Amino acid sequence: MPESQPGGTDSAPAIMDYRFPSGDLQLRGHLAEPPEGPHSAPGLLLCHGFPVRGRESPQSGVSFPELADRIAVELGWVVLAMNFRGCGAAEGNYSMLGWLDDVAAGVAELNRLGVQGVWIAGFGTGGSLAVCEGARNPSVMGVAALATPTDFEDWARNPRRLLRHARDVQVIKDPEFPPSFEEWAAGFKSVHPVEAAERLAPRPLLVVHGDSDDLTPLNDGRALARAHGDAEFRLINGAGHELRHDPRAVAVLLGWLSRQQIAVLAQPTEAEIESAELEAAELEAAELEAAEVEAAELEAAEVESAVLEAAEVESAVLESAESARETPTDPPG
C-alpha cells in the first residue's frame, strides 16, 4: 500500500514510498502509473541487484524509480520498482530464498492491482531471481535479465565470507540472523537460473550483457539465452556490469517492452502488427542513436579535457624553460 500517492510526473526525485507485503514482512517500492491510469495496462516488476561497498543497502535501487516513471510515461505500463528485504527501508534480512519470495510478492502485488499481465526485469542477482520466478510462476508473461549470473556457486563455497559482506553492506542488520547458518547457506544451491531459463520457454526472455562486465562473465548471459532456446540476446559493446546506467541497455529494454505490449496484449491485425513493430524498431533505433550520441559527447569531452591538460603542461614547461634562460648565472670562480 502506498504511504503517499505514487507519482511519475512530479519534479521531485521519486522515492521508495510504496509498501507491500512479502510474508510477514513489509517491503518498499516505487509504483509508477501511466498518465491515463492503470486500467488495461501491462505490469512490470523492476528488481535491483545485490548491494556492493560504496552503494550499500540504503542506496539499493535508488535510480530505479526514475526508470519506472520513464516506462510508465513513455510506454504506458504500471511499474513497481521494488526493494528486497534488507534493502533501503524494506524490513527483514537478506537470504537468497527470501529474495526469491520477494519477487513472487512483487508479482502478486501487481496482479492485485489488476494489470493486464506481469513481466519482470531484473539486473544482476535480481535478474537471476526474475528468471527463476518466471519459470515457477505461469502468470509471468516474460522476463528481461540484464548482467545476470547463472549460478551462485562462489557464494555457496564461501558462505561465511558472503555473510560478512552482507553485514558490511547492511542487507543483514540483525546480529542474531540467520537463526540457522546451514539453512541460510543452502539457499545459494537452490537457485538455478539456467535450468529456470529452459522452463521459462516458450515465454519470452531478453538477455542483455556487457562485453566488459567484470563481475558476471559474458558466458553467463550466453548460457541463459542458449538454455531458453529462443531468447533475444543483446551484447552491449564496452559496457560493464552496471547496465542500469548504460543508456544503450535501457534503450534495448524499452524496445523489448514495447514489442511485448504489441505481441501479447494488443492482438492486432497483421498490418497493425507490422506497423507497430516498425514503430517499436524506430523507437529503439532512436533510443540507441541518442545513447551513442551521449557516449560520443562524453568521449569528446574527455578528449578535450585531455588536450587542455596537455596544453597546460606544455605551457608550464615552456614557461619554466624561459625562466631558466632569463636567470643570471654566477661567474666562474
- The low-confidence runs, each spanning 5 or more residues with pLDDT under 50, are 2-11, 327-333
Helix content: 40-55%
Q: Just give the CATH class.
A: Alpha Beta
Order of helices and strands: EEEHEHEHEHHHHEHEHH
Named CATH topology: Rossmann fold
CATH architecture: 3-Layer(aba) Sandwich
Please state how the strands of the largest beta sheet are arranged side by side: 1-2-4-3-5-6-7-8
Please indicate the count of domains.
Answer: 1
Query: Biggest sheet, in brief?
Result: 8 strands, mixed
Mean pLDDT level: 87
Q: How big is the Rg?
A: 24 Å
What structural class results from the helix and strand content? alpha/beta
What's the total number of strands? 8
- Overall shape: it is globular
The CATH homologous superfamily corresponds to: Alpha/Beta hydrolase fold, catalytic domain
End-to-end separation in angstroms reads 91 Å
- Give me the number of helical elements: 10
